[in-house]
Amino acid sequence: MLNKIWRNREAILEGVKNSVFKNEHVEEIAAERKAICDTCPDLDKEGSSCLVPGTQPCCGQCGCSLQLKLRSLSSACGNEEEPRWHALLTQEDEDALTNQLKSNQDGDNIQSGDA
Questions:
Q1: Which among 89, 112, 108 has a CA at the least distance from the CA of 14?
Q2: Residue 99 is assigned to a structural domain of this protein
Q3: Helix, strand or coil for residue 76?
Q4: Which of 37, 55, 82, 115 satisfies CB 3.0 to 4.6 Å to 109 for a cystine?
Q5: What is the DSSP letter of 10?
Q6: How many domains does the chain have?
Q7: How are beta strands 43-44 and 58-59 bridged, if at all?
Q8: Bridge partners for 58 per DSSP
């Protein structure tokens, strides 16, 4: 279990970040993904398949908490054989996008005199 969490730490952290620092675009994607997961027979509402106890609902295929997985743009559906939704970005693309958005925001703050 810890190996799986360690291997997926970047995607998990991305989901944590996107859960804490809400973004309208990410929340729209999460809502679309949630609608798909809500109809999936592998949805675990009880938490018996969750990698981390108490994080339900989770994916019965991979054990990830949906709260985080749905908001990780570099994550795909846990069903690797027949995914119901796909990753939108690689982890590297997600990092580059985050850095670009931060750079743009910093530039806006400097121009408006907020820095």
A1: 89
A2: no
A3: coil
A4: 115
A5: H
A6: 1
A7: antiparallel
A8: 44, 65
Closest CA to 67 of 5, 9, 3, 16: 16
> Before 41, cis peptide (omega within 30)?
no
**Residue 113 domain-assigned?**
no
- pLDDT per residue as tens digits for the range 58-90: 999 999 999 999 999 999 999 999 999 999 988
- Which pair of structure tokens corresponds to residue 7? 């291997």
Structural domain for 38, as ranges: 2-87
Q: Let me know: does 88 contact 29? Beta carbons within 8 Å.
A: yes
User: Which residue shows structure tokens 């620092």?
Assistant: 21
pTM (2 d.p.):
0.76
Measure the CA–CA gap between 63 and 114, rounded to whole angstroms: 43
How far is 113 from 83, CA to CA, in rounded Å? 47
Report d(CA 109, CA 93) in Å as an integer. Answer: 24
The one-letter amino acid code at 62 reads: C
Asked, for residue 100, whether it belongs to a domain, the answer is: no
What would the two tokens of residue 62 be? 């991979």
